[in-house]
Write a sequence for this structure.
């Protein structure tokens, strides 16, 4: 399953809900304001330390760039472009957008 989060963890509880539901083998893609979670101090940082590589994490690089954050991405978060976004959707039979 591909989980897509577009809201900041400061705005909604979408990321927290997503992280509770993400299982080993799933992928989480952060887009729009969701990319704020790909930086130090976010709930995702603690989760990355806890679950290692059981869940794969991605952030949309153009959204990181637009917010001046691409150089601050957490280790363990792969930055992808729009083509990578399409590839992730194609790789996963099920996608869930967390609103």
């Amino acid at each position: 399953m591909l989980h897509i989060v577009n809201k900041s963890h400061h705005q909604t509880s979408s990321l927290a809900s997503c992280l509770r539901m993400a299982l080993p083998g799933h992928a989480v893609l952060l887009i729009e304001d969701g990319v704020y979670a790909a930086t130090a101090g976010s709930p995702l940082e603690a989760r990355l330390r806890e679950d290692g590589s059981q869940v794969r994490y991605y952030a949309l690089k153009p959204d990181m760039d637009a917010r001046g954050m691409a150089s601050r991405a957490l280790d363990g978060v792969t930055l992808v472009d729009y083509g990578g976004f399409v590839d992730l959707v194609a790789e996963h039979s099920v996608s869930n957008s967390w609103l």
DSSP finds four helices and five strands in the chain. The domain at 2-98 is CATH 3.40.1260.10 (Hypothetical Protein Ychn; Chain: A,). The longest helix spans residues 82-91. The two ends are 16 Å apart (CA to CA).
